[in-house]
Amino acid sequence: MQTALKQYMVVTGNYWAFTLTDGALRMLVLLHFYKLGYSPLEIASLFVFYELFGVITNLFGGWLGARIGLNKTMNIGLFLQIAALSMLLVPAEWLIVPWVMAAQALSGVAKDLNKMSAKSSIKLLVPQDSQSKLYQWVAVLTGSKNALKGVGFFIGGFLLTQLGFQAAVAVMAGALALVWLLSLVLLKKDLGKSSYKPKFKDMLSKSGPINLLSGARLFLFGARDLWFVIALPLFLAQQLAWSQQAIGTFLALWIIGYGLVQSLAPFITGKRSGKVPGRWAAVGWAFALCLIPAVLAKLLPLPFPTETLLVSVLLLFGAVFAVNSSLHSYLIVSYAKADGVSLDVGFYYMANAMGRLIGTVLSGYLYQTQGLEACLVWSSGFILATVVLSCFLPKAKEVQKNNAPI
To answer: What is the CATH number of domain 2-190+198-401?
Structure first.
């Protein structure tokens, strides 16, 4: 168990370092190109390849991880992120939309290789009969990652203000290169390598629960990004006249708080009483989340202080969304087969990336054509789809009885 804990710490530290640069890069690109006068839909297009290649990477990355080992896919992800950052160190006149989209595509591959590897490895480091500990370790990994993504948002806004775009990117690339070198030395060589050689056909899940959970995840993360990724930052800048530093700081604090709640999700959903969540926990928390953007969409046109209303509801949305996300992260690791775990986890995070892709594009389009209220209404509808799909997930007792339903 001591060796497993050491590997867990290496995986988590690796994931943390990557996440800092990922969050910072997103904020750098968003604010830099908004400052250059790009429209919401044009800014959204910069992230299309990031999300699209995330979809592809999760599908093929799960297969690759099962064949060559999760240590290799994690280190490949780190290296590709360094390469993506390096692509943005060109002269300013070269930073045209196609070039930035290509860099974001490479970053999308890197991010999802890293995340798939980190989440899959936890399954292999916890005894199969210890579902409570599995839930706790997954929650800590996921929550701490998102808290650091928030720190990355802050770092991105800060570095853009203090150093400018290219210098900020150079600092991040150098720091991540050091982490990559350490990871090459410390990660266990055969981590996550399956006992058989999976074929391409094995990339598609044959598990009913995993397919249902993947669909629920698609709509859940599509709902978040529908209003959070493009529409919200631009609304804060255009309608409320927030500065770049203020937007970066606020979104950073939101993500940090969101990550902290994710880490505490096992205690919120019943770990203290020994309960392991299943179907009804997923349904109940998703339904609660569904109401929040719908109510905000109704309240925004009314004569309430817009800034106070938006910030308050966003904090509530973040807390409830965090519990939903942590529940899903536990359930996929619990449902996945131990042998070739990355195949199931990769398929699931493919759906996650597809949801983010759809949400990002719709966020830019709906905000530009109809405004923030439309983004919120669509977000609520997406979460309702998550509720419906979650109704067909296994009960908690079934999860405990069979750790890897097929």
So the answer is: 1.20.1250.20
d(CA 156, CA 170): 12
Q: Which two tokens stand for residue 75?
A: 């280190």
Are 359 and 222 spatial neighbours (Cβ–Cβ below 8 Å)?
Answer: yes
Q: Measured between alpha carbons, how far apart are the two ends of the chain, in Å?
A: 28
pLDDT, tens digit (0-9, with 9 covering 90-100), for 254-312: 888 888 888 887 777 765 555 666 788 889 999 999 999 999 999 988 888 888 999 89
| pTM for this entry | 0.73
Domain spans of the chain?
2-190+198-401
Cα 335 from Cα 385, distance rounded (Å) = 21
What CA–CA distance (Å, rounded) separates 83 from 384?
Answer: 39
Q: Is the pLDDT of residue 388 over 80?
A: yes
Give dist(CA 372, CA 232) in Å, integer.
7
